[in-house]
Design goal:
The complex is a heterodimer. By secondary structure, chain A is an all-beta fold. Chain A has no helices and 11 strands. Chain B is mostly beta strands. Chain B starts with a strand and ends with a strand. Classes of the chains: A mainly beta, B mainly beta. Chains A and B meet through strand 4, strand 5 and strand 9 of A and strand 4, strand 5, strand 9 and strand 10 of B.
Chain lengths: 110, 113
């Protein structure tokens, strides 16, 4: 099956800092989503981005499907950005099965 | 606010109990999913329903029994669970089974004593 690797595994940021999270995947994908899991466990949709670039406020994401990676940018981080960020993909031969990476644990300190 | 609603938020049960987790969505989606998440791990797929029919079962033990009474509702019936089944159970939905965007509920946190 497809391998989804996220880096770094852990990230500690000072409030106001910028950061980049990376997701590498080993096969062609039809779907790529970024999620933020808050401390209560809810998975919040950040981006649905199988290719291209999107922006939403202080967050933006870029997926380069031909090179099999996606990047999530967090700018001017806030303490509420703390949590686990997951990248998840669906491949052409795993229709409907969203495969998650291991996640990046982000801690933003005041 | 999430448009996928899960109840209960927390559940504690003994190994001989029978309980159910419920999930509801009103987005008109035709695919619904159960995921299981252990602490410090990513979610793992358990079941996929497409147009109210079970289309994927990821070799889940029979003590977990899914049910899709209609296109808006998804249940997970629990019976004779083990302590290692304690986890966060997440329900999700998407327009169709396939590459489209999935939307998750807030989860049901299950503890088996």
């Amino acid at each position: 099956g497809i391998q989804v690797e996220q880096s770094p595994p852990d990230l500690i940021l000072q409030e106001g800092a910028n950061s980049t999270l990376r997701c590498n995947f080993s096969d062609s994908v039809n779907n790529l989503q970024w999620f933020h899991q808050n401390p209560w466990g809810q998975l919040i949709n950040l981006f649905y981005i199988p290719s291209g670039t999107k922006q939403n406020g202080r967050l933006s994401a870029t997926t380069v499907a031909t090179e099999r990676y996606s990047l999530l940018y967090i700018s001017s981080s806030q303490t509420t950005d703390s949590g686990v960020y997951f990248c998840a993909v669906v491949t052409t031969d795993s229709w409907g099965k969203l495969q998650f990476g291991a996640g990046t644990q982000v801690v933003v300190t005041p | 606010d999430t448009e996928v609603t899960q109840t209960p938020k927390h559940l504690v049960m003994g190994m001989t109990n029978k309980k159910s987790l419920k999930c509801e969505q009103h987005m008109g989606h035709r695919a619904m999913y159960w995921y299981k998440q252990k602490a410090k791990k990513p979610p793992e797929l358990m079941f996929v329903y497409s147009y109210e029919k079970l289309s994927i079962n990821e070799s889940v033990p029979s003590r977990f029994s899914p049910e899709c009474p209609n296109s808006s509702l998804l249940n997970l019936h629990l019976h004779a669970l083990q302590p290692e089944d304690s986890a966060l159970y997440l329900c999700a939905s998407s327009q169709e089974r396939g590459p489209g965007e999935l939307f998750f509920g807030e989860g049901s946190r299950l503890t088996v004593l």
